[in-house]
Amino acid sequence: MYINILYISKTTISTTRGNLFTNKCHTLIKFVPADLNYVFMVFLEFERPLEKLYEQMEKIKQIEAEGDIDVSDNIKELDSKIRSKQKEIYSNLSGWQKVQLSRHPARPYTLYYIEKMFKKFIELHGDRNFGDDNAIVGGIGRINGQTMVVIGHQKGVNTKMRQFRNFGMANPEGYRKALRLMKMAERFNYPVVCLIDTPGAYPGIEAEERGQAEAIAKNLFEMAQLKVPILCYVIGEGASGGALGIGLGDRVFMLENTWYSVISPESCSSILWRSWDFKEQAAKSLKLTSEHMLGFGLIDDIVKEPLGGAHNDPEKMAKVLKAHIKKELASLMEIPSDKRIDARIEKYCNMGQYDTIKEPKEKNKQ
After folding, report:
1. Residue 158 maps to which CATH number?
2. Which of 127, 212, 273, 307 has CB atoms 3.0–4.6 Å from 177's, for a disulfide?
């Protein structure tokens, strides 16, 4: 994957988020000195046609700033071209391109959504057993006066923070912390909101020694019978058991440009073809997009993103997500807890397809 970065003056665009990252030597990033009055616009490989249009827009706006020239008509015309090209590009995305968008370095993460959606948020730490895990954040906050517990993966917004957050790959203590917060929510009758964005549970030896599989399995068992409403949203990557560890709920939703699968396309490619070169083919075969998940009946609905993806307008995405949480939670709160639990269990029991084959009768021996 190659990423191009266009630097635009702050007078032109004041709200662009620039969270850069490196991805196993497959990302090309150009840097500028930190003291320059510029911000980032990051373009993925399939977004290159947009890069040229934004470069033209920046030149026109510089001409307007430097001289007394009215270029409003040119700006309107170019803005129309940009929106038209965006619709053309984002309406025909492949599975691999959606995977790329879900990993976009400027895509908003859990803490961004918490800051924008929740009031009086108090983060809670530790599993009361081993320690704290920075890859999973959680605490208590309010949306329109309704207190709730929010839990989510946090990848980090720059290289240093990504190391601190372990790239969103949780250890057993992270899942046990999440379960502790869920049990606290149940005690005080607070609904639970889970925001999923992880490349997978941490596969290190120390994580296995502390019971990674047991921690995830215990969460699934307890979440299935939790007495309070649970809403789950895939806001980025939803990989394997690392996503499932906080992903069992009354209703599960995916943002438009996210993915949910037992394995990442790269890992699938490396196992089947012994190379990452077939990751695009793997993404297609895995059928991991939000549309596929909805078609399979594994999620309840898709939350639309702003044109160009959540990273293109994070504030709008946060408003859309907040409104969605309010609407879904209002309907769940009306259902008695015992009926809600029964419906939750039945929902997961009905997932998948199977046939019952009758044993053939033996022919009478003559």
Report:
1. 3.90.226.10
2. 127
Residue 115 in tokens: 């800051």
Helix (H, G, I), strand (E, B) or coil at 288: coil
Same domain (yes/no): 128, 78:
no
> Is residue 325 within 8 Å of residue 193, measured between CB atoms?
yes
Query: What single letter denotes the amino acid at residue 131?
Result: G
Specify if 364 maps to a domain.
no
Per-residue model confidence as pLDDT tens digits over 184-197: 999 999 999 999 99
Whether 260 and 148 map to the same domain: the answer is yes
As for how many domains the chain has, the answer is 2
Q: What is the pTM of this model?
A: 0.85
Burial of residue 348 (number of CB atoms within 10 Å: 0-12, 13-18, 19+)? middle
Sign of CA dihedral 177, 181, 186, 192: negative
Query: Which residues are 1's β-sheet partners?
Result: none
Q: What six digits make up the tokens of 1?
A: 């994957």
Residues of the chain with pLDDT under 70: 1-40, 363-366
Residue 211 has φ and ψ, to the nearest 5°, of 90, 55
Token pair for 65: 């700033």
Q: Three-state SS for 265?
A: helix
pLDDT tens digits for range 274-298: 999 999 999 999 999 999 999 999 9
Domain that holds residue 57: 3-92
Q: In the numeric block, which tokens belong to residue 293?
A: 């998940």
The contacts of residue 69 (CB under 8 Å, 6+ apart) are 63
